[in-house]
Amino acid sequence: MTKKRIFAAVATDKETVNGGVPIFYAQDDEQRDKMAGTLANIADGMVHELENGVMIIVEH
Amino acid sequence: MELQDYLLVIIVGTLTGTLTRIVLLRVDYHQYPGYPHGYIVHLSLGFVASALGAVAVPALMDKEYTAFTFLALAAQQFSEIRNQERRTLESLEESELVQRGKDYIEGIARTFEGRNYLVMSTAFITALATQLGMNSPVGWLLGIVVGTIMMIISRIFMSGKTLGDICEVRPAKLRFEGATLWVDDIAIFNVGLKDRRKKILQDGLAVMIHPKDDNARATIHDMGQRNVIAHTVSVILGSKKDIDIPDFTPILRKDPDTGKVALYVMPVEKDMQALIESVRRTPVLETAFRKPLATKAGRAAAD
Predict the structure, then answer these.
(1) How confident is the model at residue B54 (pLDDT cuts 50, 70, 90)?
(2) Do residue B179 and residue A49 have CB atoms under 8 angstroms apart?
(3) Across the interface, do A33 and B193 touch by the CB < 8 Å criterion?
(4) pLDDT confidence bin for A38, thresholds 50/70/90
């Protein structure tokens, strides 16, 4: 099976995410989407949304 | 027996064997081999195998029974072919975007080994028939007749099942619930970016693969088999996946309750009919083919 790894998290609300992965904060949802897309491009990863407004970039 | 007669026996046997190899060598839904040197390798080996099979008959006639042992040598060579095929495909695999998977590679390698045995036995039986024919009023034409029959048998014997034989493939609908992509009632995966979701709904296709019985259900339960479906579809219809767009990877997920499998693809050619056809023509892996219904417990569990 392939190994998966969370590469980064992007959020607007500082309360929603903290911990061991690189975290990027955006000003609004639009900027968050853009940052997540760029990060995914850099890491060849995929953007997933955890329904609470946090986006994670996962290397599949 | 004249030397010339033996020569005729060997030639008819070898030719039929080589012809069988040519008949069995074609680019189909396996998409392999697909380049001239691949053909040359397999045709040459087929020629060698059929020559070995054909030569065995004169050796027998001359009571050179020890000569028969070189067939064992041939068997060793053929298993080397399997290794060589596996190595080739495995090294190609690294650069495949939608990979064949280990199971498929093993299946292809085994097929190539098996076909050489088939070619060798075709050559042997044909040569034997030619020899017997020459000792009877029928003449060496008996060899040609038997050779043709052997070729037809090989062709039927060696074409395995396809997915369409064991499953029904029906069109399905893609939809999003929040960020989760669904194919009918099976969740596929989570797509974070809004424009990717739009793109998937616009260009994506989905089918539902319904197993016809419990045997089929066990077969498409196999991850290797599902890999083969994804690979075949991507080769035939193209795939929009690239190294930095993993969202467009074809994915197959099963319904744990019914065993039906949903397929999501982002084809370059958006053609539902072609998609269904290429799923139906996907080869069923020998290693994935299961028969729980052949056992008593399996039949008891089925009702």
Answers:
(1) very high
(2) yes
(3) yes
(4) very high
Q: 3-state class of A38 per DSSP?
A: helix
Per residue in B171-210, pLDDT tens?
999 999 999 999 999 999 999 999 999 999 999 999 999 9
Question: Residue B252: left (phi > 0), alpha (psi -120 to 50), or beta?
Answer: beta
Instruction: Return the residue in A7, A35, A38, A48 with the most chain B beta carbons within 10 A, the one to mutate for interface testing.
Output: A48
Whole-angstrom distance between the N-terminal and C-terminal Cα of chain B? 65
Strand partners, A54: A50
Residue ranges per domain, chain A? 22-50
Enter the pTM of the model. Answer: 0.85
Choose the closest CB to B190 out of A33, A40, A48: A48
Cβ–Cβ contact A39 with B under 8 A = no
Mark yes or no for CB contact B178/A49 under 8 Å: yes
Residue of A nearest to B181 (CA): A48
